[in-house]
Amino acid sequence: MVLTRSPPKKMPRKAIREQRALVRSQILRATSANSPLPPSYYKAISQYLSQAFADGTYLKDGPPKADAPASAPPNPLTDPGAMEGMMAGMKTQMVMMVPQMIIMGWINFFFQGFVLIKLPFPLTLGFKSMLQRGVETPDMDVRWVSSLSWYFLNFFGLNGLYRLILGGENAADSSRDMTTPFAAAAAAAPQPGQAQDYNKLFKAERDNLEFSEGLHTWVAQDVDKRILQKYGRIPADGK
């Protein structure tokens, strides 16, 4: 799976700058209620970003022209980058599915009708079809688990153990790859064929910045008085 993955493509500098400008504004707004920046600095940065968003300074294609027609979103089926991401997802899915299908067929051929373990806790009849695949005995206790069902339980239930031992981005995590090719392509290539209109995002972010300016609170406001009150140097009423 590691060998079949395509190397990530380098993003243009202007595209990275476009994304980071939006993230910078969101971080600034997220810290407005308890900001480490004084009001003058916060207001200056907020107004600068707001004006840059209005002028289209951070847009990778430059400021939009007033007489330019509205461009339709690109079709992912005609975008080479999106198609490449979809193919990468399909290759990853095939590499994951082929050995698992072979193992499942091997277990089903040699151990069909076998029961392996008995769970130490009671279960309802709703779990019977999930835990006793390949065993056609309606009177058997639900706690008995067949070999094929035990394989599925291990296949889908050990992902947490894999993430704990091998890390979150390990190649053995089957839950990440048991997806459709389109979802796998979206994970492999960020936003393929789903080009976001950053001009609209910047306009919405500009309104959010203007609203956050009224909620700004400096964390060091009257810090000298608060320290003196904490250690009893001045009364709590500040007089």
TrEMBL record:
Q: Where in the cell is it found?
A: Membrane
- Is the Repeat keyword given for this protein? no
The portions of this protein that span the membrane are 101-121, 148-166
Q: Name one GO biological process term.
A: protein folding in endoplasmic reticulum
Q: Which GO terms describe its cellular component?
A: EMC complex
Q: Which UniProt keywords apply?
A: Membrane, Transmembrane, Transmembrane helix
**Does the entry feature the keyword Transmembrane helix, yes or no?**
yes
Membrane topology (UniProt): Multi-pass membrane protein
Function of the protein: The EMC seems to be required for efficient folding of proteins in the endoplasmic reticulum (ER).
Please report which protein family the annotation says this sequence is part of. Belongs to the EMC3 family.
Name-wise, this protein is: ER membrane protein complex subunit 3
